Structures
1.
Amino acid sequence: MADLGAAKPPYQRIAAELRAQIADGVLEPGAQLPTIHALAESHGVSINTIQKALKVLKDAGLIEGVAGYGTFVRT
């Protein structure tokens, strides 16, 4: 029986989804991610949740933010 208490927080689920899209080539190196606002709206979560998810991916070296331009998949 699955332990429902072990469900991942939303930011971890979103980070895992984006990580899978990068690994599967859906988001290719150099691709720009949607804005934080667009991601929040499409996932039905707050901006803070998206920021946490993106921090996980930045810390893993998968994405990088470019001031004034957006967030991109690292090459």
2.
Amino acid sequence: MQQSINIGCFIFVKYLITKTMETSKSVRNIINAVKYKYGHPDIDNQKLCSLELKDGSIYFITLFRKRNFAKIDGLAIKNILVEDATTFEKRVTIARLALVGIFAFGIKKKQKNEIAYLTLEWNNAGFDHSTIIEFNGFNALNHANKTRNKILKEIKSFEQIV
């Protein structure tokens, strides 16, 4: 009888520890105050939001209502790029090339911004997407890089489970 009570207590304590670890993990995997720029088929406007990393996916959540409004399946991600604003702005786009022709390669941007971009290249239902997330403020590039690393860790940990 005493042994079954001890086993029951052990199982209950293990359950509480597991739940606490799951809760603390989900708290650690929220990236607050990022700006969604463009590139997700389910989001029409630029908006300030948070990212939640769970179940191997990236969830875009509203800042105040804390509800999901878009998702990127982590296994669909093909590449994640981190760039500062000057590198991002220097990229020669097709539109810029069409606008100024060969001179697009010579046009330089002069201003240095405390902005970093995280580009998620992913595929959904046969369509390729490049979703851009902006980080502003002090140490923005470092914040974007840490977010990239958190995303990679979340995807790797989910792949090990599956």
3.
Amino acid sequence: MTKKLLCVVVALILALGAVGALAEGLTVQGAGYVTVKADTATISLGMRQYAKDVKEAQQAVNRCIDAVIAALTEAGVDKEDMYTDSIYIYPEYDYSGSSDVEKIMGYYASNSLTVVTSDIDNVGAYIDAAFEAGANTLDGVSFNASDTRDAYDEALTMAIEEATRKAAVMAKAAGVELGGIERISEGENYGYSAPVMYSRNTMAEEDAGAGTQVIAARQQVGATVTIEFELKD
């Protein structure tokens, strides 16, 4: 067999393999995304205190959290929408000495409170009320959409339409005719929010009246699908 003939045979085998693969069908993936407005905010804040005595540190934090809860309740937050997220007490060690013995210098105590509210417009006011009552830590604010079923259905529809469009383009480019759907499967679905923008005023005393500004994030809901199409002869 000559070298030229061998190349022709190899090319023919590859072509037949490609046709066979196409004859088996065409598998494509599609994705859809829908943005929804958040209607629930979660605020994580609390108190961190240092003292030489462990009991003193703990009591200071306890008094502050009691005051924060009272201030938030007065501001309009339901007690059922507040819960303790974490409590920590840990020592501070002095390692400056030459001895291998660890020396305790004092204790840090902290208590983190989580507040869940549907009153999006007053998130900044709640943060201000907590800090005015003695809170000194703000771990973050997150927003969430409580009902994303309609948004997910819309994203799923968009994903199917995208997969169908891609399949049509690929079939046309390959010179084959697209047939019906042989199999369709739902892929990963998810939702996530854009970063939340907030700032607490720490400027000069004349600006002390400015409250915490919070801009709620919007949540993106996504869906993916995998569709297998048949190809007509």
